[in-house]
Amino acid sequence: xxxxxxxxxxxxxxxxxxxGRGIGSGKGKTGGRGVKGxxxxxxxxxxxxxxxxxxxxxxLPKRGFNNxxxxxxxxxxxxxxxxxxxxxxxxxxxxxxxxxxxxxxxIRRSKDGVKLLGTGELKSKVNLTVSATTKxxxxxxxxxxxxxxxxxxxxxxxxxxxxxxxxx
Length: 168
Description:
Helices cover about 20% and strands about 10% of the residues. By secondary structure, the chain is an alpha/beta fold. The model has no long low-confidence stretch (mean pLDDT about 90).
């Protein structure tokens, strides 16, 4: 058997309909497009067009603001941190970093960093290094005798190569 002798199984492929080859073919004259109008021509783009009426997507109000510099943090609650320590997933005696939290599967991914939330209770004394925290979480951590180190991430430029701190 040679490559030029290979053909698809009989009846598995449909032949292409040749349109516009005389009215006797059944697909001549208008070529299956109906009669006249914009859709019978080539280069039609009608999707959002409503016949001159203001289209729906323009009639609906715009809402909100999407800040391109917003940080999207992965969240870590005190309760989840304590549960990981109790289950021996994390060692409270060692420093706990964002990379360690991801590798031990306490959180799925780091995103723009990890933010510690004050939900739940922390009993263990831990040394934690995260990107952001809430005030109640920081107080609860210090009350338990632990220490908190915040990572300062690089500030994104706004305009003309300046950063948000330079603009102030």
